[in-house]
């Protein structure tokens, strides 16, 4: 029986090993989050490895998005990125070691023969698998070597016993070796295949814990047997449940997943994304909102969930809103500056504190930085962009005399929130109105919409000159 070694006290080393064959989405980055967090929680090392052996589908653009996404989220690797295509000489060296040890053999079965074999097996309701035709055994006569066919190299999988490992998510997993056929570990051109390269990488990089999606679980017994053939103990495995989209399908580009960098562009905070993603398969009691530091302090492999997690954008927006509310105002203002520049306000100064005050006033209403930037832009615009429905409802002929009276009174008001509030009260009393009857049209005329935080705070930040100008318009 082949078993996995128990966790040793050596330094924790984890890895994230994406294939650059498409943009990286939240399901992918969740698979990076946990090994990164585990390494940080245990004072270990987190390694980034780019598995780019699929030459037809791998692209530099996809690599760039992986690096950009991880940089944005602050998930900086301690080592790497390493690229598998740059390690081919090493893989071939280890392959020769296995050949010399008699663990690998050439297989000349053609693709057509293999397809025909599988069809016969499926017709007989058998599991389709390689039948060992070219596997050398004592006393066995192999078929004559055909001309003109370059063989693949197959790994001689043990035929007796079982592969057993204690998965940190799935618990004890046992697979009979009789269920595993002999894996192709090198193509006809000599290029090593994925399952072999992964094992060599994990050995060379001294990986102690492999934390990855459960779509890899079927590869694990094969990889463990290759570890054993190379005389190495396999790492601890944790296979994470799938992340589903809102329709219950596996999160993927085909099913509407967005690139991680798109969330950055839409105004999500990196710490909010870490918080939200952490909860897609792990928990710390009932804590829903927590900081990056708390997450790294709390994280372990013992509280990983066994059920598929479902992405919920509404919940993500709520989490992001909580982090925006808790964020330092001056820091938030710094995040808004480039978003204002993208809206045509390139000369917004931070040092005079106005933007920080605007952010402080509106951040409780915003789910994203983009929404907050939209509010901030109102205060730097030459004129308000007025919501026509609000205008028709609130800026009536009946209220215009009161607006004019307020404008006249504000012209003589010292420009502070307290004095603006006092002026409002005086005008309201003289006009026989309640606050909403005057505040609503004033908001519409000055910032374009009827609903904002306290109107005196808004007018103070907008500035006396603009307020008087806007109240005289339309």
UniProtKB/TrEMBL annotation:
Motif ('KMSKS' region): 250-254
InterPro entries: aa-tRNA-synth_I_cd-bd (IPR045462), aa-tRNA-synth_I_codon-bd_sub2 (IPR020751), aa-tRNA-synth_I_CS (IPR001412), aa_tRNA-synth_I_cd-bd_sf (IPR008925), Glu-tRNA-ligase_bac/mito (IPR004527), Glu/Gln-tRNA-synth (IPR000924), Glu/Gln-tRNA-synth_Ib_cat-dom (IPR020058), GluQ/Sye (IPR049940)
Keywords per UniProt: Aminoacyl-tRNA synthetase, ATP-binding, Cytoplasm, Ligase, Nucleotide-binding, Protein biosynthesis
Gene3D superfamilies in the cross-refs: 1.10.10.350, HUPs (3.40.50.620)
Catalysed reactions, semicolon-separated: tRNA(Glu) + L-glutamate + ATP = L-glutamyl-tRNA(Glu) + AMP + diphosphate
A GO molecular-function annotation: glutamate-tRNA ligase activity
EC numbers for this chain: 6.1.1.17
Keyword Aminoacyl-tRNA synthetase recorded: yes
Residue segments, region Disordered: 127-147
Motif 'HIGH' region, residue range(s) on this chain: 18-28
Xref: CDD domains: GluRS_core
Enzyme class (EC, first level): ligase
Places the protein is found: Cytoplasm
Chain ranges of the Glutamyl/glutaminyl-tRNA synthetase class Ib catalytic domain: 12-318
Keyword Heme: no
A Gene Ontology BP annotation from the UniProt entry: glutamyl-tRNA aminoacylation
Domain Aminoacyl-tRNA synthetase class I anticodon-binding per the UniProt entry, residue ranges: 350-469
Example of a GO cellular component annotation carried by this entry: cytosol
Ranges annotated as biased composition (Basic and acidic residues): 127-138
Function summary: Catalyzes the attachment of glutamate to tRNA(Glu) in a two-step reaction: glutamate is first activated by ATP to form Glu-AMP and then transferred to the acceptor end of tRNA(Glu).
Stated family: Belongs to the class-I aminoacyl-tRNA synthetase family. Glutamate--tRNA ligase type 1 subfamily.
Quaternary structure note: Monomer.
The protein's name in its UniProt record: Glutamate--tRNA ligase
Species this chain originates from: Corticibacter populi
